[in-house]
Structures are given as structure tokens and as C-alpha cells.
Amino acid sequence: KQARQLENELDLKLVSFSKLCTSYSGTRDGRRDSSDTTPLLNGSSQDRMFETMAVEIEQLLGKLTGINDKMAEYTNSAGVPSLNAALMHTLQRHRDILQDYTHEFHKTKANFLAIRERENLLGSVRKDIESYKSGSGVNNRRTELFLKEHEHLRNSDRLIEETISIAMATKENMTSQRGMLKSIQSKMNTLANRFPAVNSLIQRINLRKRRDSLILGGIIGICTILLLLYAFH
Predict the structure, then answer these.
(1) Contacts (Cβ under 8 Å, ≥6 apart) of 32
(2) Among 121, 105, 122, which residue's Cα sits nearest to residue 20?
(3) Number of CB atoms found within 10 A of residue 61's CB
(4) Is residue 36's pLDDT more than 50?
């Protein structure tokens, strides 16, 4: 009965403890999203509530551990049968519940501490930013102007480099086209130089054909005349 009573109390405490962790995270996130300069209200009260609930849960876990130890001692005593399955099952069930509650408590506590540490770090960063903004407004303005001017200069340098690269690519293309035109011109000159030689060769062939025709015609004529003379004599 004592173990079940402590387990019920622990269950309620752990549910409240988990809700506290969730509400702590949601409240901090909501304030950070709404305004970076809004102070974290109720932060200290939530921290005190966390510490109080953690101590209470640790005390209940300690009491439940003591009850489980007493039940184990009872089952190991000489007057209790060692093979009572129901009794051993009940003891193991209470041990499992204690282990689950202990694991859940440590997990929730670790998550809460991690969230609080993160919020503390973010809060210090926001304070540094606000102090920097409020303490050096003029210097910040000059720094912003210098940064903008520096960015403009970098953009101008980038545009100039792009223009130079485009001009170099255009120059390379024009050089390549000029080489192609020179190659075409040389080929045309070569063909033009070859045409007179071909014409002269064709003329020579035609002259040789005419000469051969004249020679053949003369031979045929002489032969004809000789035949006619021979026939009439």
C-alpha cells in the first residue's frame, strides 16, 4: 500500500514536472519570437519551482526505493516461501515502476537544464547586442556606411572582372575566326593558282588531238591518191 501510494504521488509530480518544463520552453520561445528586448518574466519563479519539485520528486524516489528494499528483505526472509510467484511478480513490478519513474525524472530534469542553459546563453548574447547598439550608435552608423561602401566596391570589382572575362572570350573568338578566314583565303588562292595550269594542260591536249587528226587525214588522203593512181594505170 505504501509503494502504491508513493507511486501515485510520483506519477502526479512527474506529470506536473513535465508540464513545467514544456511551459518553460514555450514561454521563452514565445517571448523571443515576439520581441528580443522583452525581459524574461517569471524566469526566477519557474527556476525556484523547478528546484522545489525536483527535491520533492527525489525525496519520493528515495522513499519508494526504501519501500522496495524492505519488500525485497521480506521476500528473502526465512518465513516467506521463496517460490511464491505472485509475490515475486509484485516485487518485480514495483521495481520496474521505480526504474521507469527514475528514468523519466532524470530525462525531464536534463531537458529542463539544457533549455535553461540555452536561454541563459541567448539572453547574454541579446544583452551584449543591446549594449553594443545603445553604446555606439554613431560608430555603428559609420561602420554600416563603410560596410555598404565596401560591398559596393566589391560588386563593382566583380562586374569589372566579368566584363574583362567577356572581352577576353570575344577576343579569342575573333582570333579564331580570323584564323579560319586566313585558312579559307589560302585555299582559295591555291585553287586559283591551280586553274591556269589545268587550262594550259587542256589546251595542249586539244592541240595534240588536232595535230593527230591532221596527220591521220593527210595519211588517208595520200593513201587514197596512191590507190587511185594505181587503179588507173
Answers:
(1) 122
(2) 105
(3) 19
(4) no
**Short-list 106, 108, 10, CA closest to 64:** 10
All cell numbers assigned to 158: 566583380
Burial state string for 157-194 with b = 16 or more CB within 10 A and e = fewer than 16 = eeeeeeeeeeeeeeeeeeeeeeeeeeeeeeeeeeeeee
Reduced to 3 states (helix: H, G, I; strand: E, B; else coil), residue 76 is coil
pLDDT at 82 exceeding the cut of 60: no
With contact defined as beta carbons under 8 Å apart, do 112 and 21 qualify? yes
Q: Which residue has the cell 560588386?
A: 155
CATH class of the domain defined by 1-27+40-136: mainly alpha
Round to whole Å and give the CA distance between 163 and 169. Answer: 10
At residue 133, what is the residue type?
K
User: What integer best gives the mean pLDDT of the chain?
Assistant: 78
What the block records as the C-alpha cell of 147 is 560596410
DSSP per residue, 27-70: HHHHHHHH-SSS--TTHHHHHHHHHHHHHHHHHHHHHHHHHHHH
Residue that wins the pLDDT comparison between 195 and 8: 8
pTM, entire model: 0.46
Residues written for the chain: 233
Q: In this predicted structure, what is the pLDDT of residue 37? A: 40
DSSP, res 113: H
